[in-house]
Amino acid sequence: MVKGKNELWEWTKALLIAIGLAAVIRYFLFAPIVVDGHSMMPTLHNGDRMIVNKLGKPERFDIIVFHAPEQKDYIKRVIGLPGDTVEYKNDVLYINGVAYEEPYLDKYKAQVKDGPLTQDFKLEDLPSDHKTVPEGELFVMGDNRRSSKDSRHIGTIPMDKVIGDTSVVYWPIKDIRYVK
């Protein structure tokens, strides 16, 4: 009888420890997310399942997940960091006056025949009216520039709204990949 109680207690402890570890990992380290929509095409597809890394600090061109003003989580690419000027001219990204290549957009740019993929703009011409990305905030854009609600519409994103970055698609199995 005592052996049965001890064994039950050991299994209960192991189960509680496993649940506790899973909760800590999920809450503080990694979390799953499902891509909802087409704003990150062709890089990410509607329904892709990804792992969000909650550790570290977002860097330029990282794909991040954040709490958007609409009480929904968005997934976008970091374009501007605090203090940066951001401008698009003739379908070329300029950050602090320096032109940047965006190889993740090459597929879409090749398909577009009726004008640029990304319309010209300067950061100060957008609703936020900033000349530079404010301290503690990020300027983000979706890869599907013609169909993305991003910082051009909702403004810059405070760092405290960022959940984490993501770069691994784990589902569907046929599409498992590392994205950059």
How does this model look, in words?
The strands form two sheets. Strands 1, 2, 3, 4, 9, 10, 11 and 12 form an eight-stranded antiparallel beta sheet that branches. A four-stranded antiparallel beta sheet has the order 7-6-5-8, with no helix packed on it. The protein has helices spanning 2-29, 106-111, 151-154, and strands at residues 30-34, 49-53, 63-67, 73-80, 86-89, 92-95, 98-100, 121-122, 137-141, 157-158, 162-171, 177-178. It has a single domain (30-178), classed as Ribbon (Umud Fragment, subunit A). The longest helix has 28 residues, at 2-29. With 180 residues, it is of the alpha+beta class. It has three helices and twelve strands, in the order αβββββββαββαβββ. Helix content is 21%, strand content 31%. It is elongated and about 75 Å long. The model has no long low-confidence stretch (mean pLDDT 86).
